[in-house]
């Protein structure tokens, strides 16, 4: 296990100083706004007047406050800078490598914590399976890309949620961690809902568990509640996210339905937006199947994994960073399930890691770097396929979505027999 951690950590630390995604530049702006306005941060977290705020892009802050606190702390401690300007009709955004590397260190540490937690969670089944799970996560190209190349923090929210699963015997702390993970990034809402469902199914102390869940979710908001409660009025609009639209660029859409609908609209002019607009219908149906399954098989690890699979399979805008939690959750699913489901799950984990290899991933090693490491750029080019056309990415996302649907249905539909038997038994009791 030590060798795996050292290898994965070395790869990340080699790549991290020489690359940066566009979000890291925007994070610098968010950090400045937090340092300036502090508890009133959310009053200034929308995209209006972004240039005056020192933001390079008109992207609002759409997350809980934990990441804003961390970004502000990093900027206060290490400084850094971004340089955004127009030249000859082109817009350039250069990121200080010190800033990019410092922020990515947080994500790399979170990635490492996730790998260790996967190992600890699976070790009760088998030491060999635990090591394999850590390898599949920590050396997976998609997890390396998100934390060390582009720089996004889904692994941070995931680490807190997995810690809650590991500390499940300490119920209060466990539920507080589930709630806290949502204050990091709300994309774990389906697993969080499953944990609340589990709390009520277990009956006794359900209210206590939910209260600690709310305590974990709301504590990061406490400074704002105390010193600038008016700023929280902006939060619902920010967290509601953008309106449903076609997912461009297609190569960054991980939902097969959205990718296909967008591609057909681009190439044939068809109005396919209705396929995206009602994504919540399929999400409700599939999540209901997972909730029913959990009634009869109360393995919280497996059920939360399936809940996040539902989110990834159905949400209309699935970005590459959302694949980091799905890789981790599917590794847990493979470890605790058996038969064809395990094989299909492991294949999906490997399949998810193909995307960064398809990409011209070297782009992130020079687009925001004023002085790129061209040796590393050429090396990344040599180990990636550098596919620029949309069709392979549409095929990839459709394949991923079909795999997730197959996993969810094969893991839940058999339990409908249990539901039918239970309903029949209740009917006999009435008569």
TrEMBL record:
Residue spans crossing the bilayer: 66-86, 98-122, 142-168, 175-197, 209-232, 276-292, 299-316, 322-354, 393-416
Entry keywords, A to Z: Membrane, Transmembrane, Transmembrane helix
Keyword set includes Kinase: no
Domain of life, per lineage: Archaea
UniProt key word Metal-binding: no
Protein name, per record: DUF2029 domain-containing protein
Record lineage: Archaea, Methanobacteriati, Methanobacteriota, Thermococci, Thermococcales
């Amino acid at each position: 296990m030590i060798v795996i951690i050292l290898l994965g950590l070395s790869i990340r630390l080699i790549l991290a100083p020489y690359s940066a995604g566009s979000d890291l530049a925007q994070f610098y702006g968010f950090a400045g706004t937090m340092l300036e306005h502090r508890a009133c941060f959310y009053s200034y977290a929308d995209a209006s007047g972004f240039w005056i705020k020192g933001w390079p892009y008109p992207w609002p802050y759409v997350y809980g406050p934990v990441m804003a606190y961390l970004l502000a702390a990093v900027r206060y401690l290490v400084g850094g800078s971004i340089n955004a300007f127009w030249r000859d009709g082109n817009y350039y955004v250069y990121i200080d490598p010190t800033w990019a590397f410092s922020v990515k260190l947080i994500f790399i540490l979170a990635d490492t914590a996730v790998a260790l937690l996967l190992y600890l969670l699976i070790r009760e089944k088998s030491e060999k399976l635990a090591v394999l799970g850590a390898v599949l996560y920590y050396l997976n190209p998609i997890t390396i890309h998100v934390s060390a190349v582009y720089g996004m923090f889904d692994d941070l929210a995931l680490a807190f949620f997995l810690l809650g699963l590991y500390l499940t015997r300490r119920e209060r702390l466990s539920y507080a961690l589930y709630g806290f993970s949502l204050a990091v990034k709300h994309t774990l809402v389906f697993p969080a809902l499953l944990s609340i469902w589990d709390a009520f199914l277990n009956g006794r102390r359900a209210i206590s568990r939910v209260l600690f869940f709310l305590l974990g979710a709301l504590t990061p908001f406490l400074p704002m509640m105390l010193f600038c409660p008016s700023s929280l009025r902006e939060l619902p609009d920010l967290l509601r996210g953008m309106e449903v639209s076609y997912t461009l660029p297609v190569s960054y859409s991980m939902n097969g339905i959205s990718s296909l609908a967008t591609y057909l609209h681009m190439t044939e002019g068809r109005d396919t937006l209705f396929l995206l607009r009602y994504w919540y219908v399929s999400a409700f149906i599939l999540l209901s199947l997972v909730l029913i399954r959990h009634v009869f098989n109360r393995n919280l690890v497996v059920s939360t994994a399936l809940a996040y699979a539902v989110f990834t399979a159905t949400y209309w805008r699935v970005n590459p960073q959302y694949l980091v939690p799905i890789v981790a959750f599917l590794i847990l699913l493979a470890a605790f399930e058996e038969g064809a489901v395990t094989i299909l799950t492991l294949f999906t984990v490997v399949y998810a890691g193909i995307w960064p290899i398809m990409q011209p991933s070297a782009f992130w090693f020079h687009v925001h770097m004023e002085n790129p490491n061209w040796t590393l750029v050429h090396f990344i080019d040599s180990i990636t396929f550098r596919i620029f056309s949309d069709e392979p990415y549409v095929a990839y996302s459709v394949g991923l979505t079909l795999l997730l649907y197959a996993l969810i249905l094969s893991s839940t539909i058999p339990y409908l027999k249990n539901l039918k038997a239970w309903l029949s038994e209740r009917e006999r009791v009435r008569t």
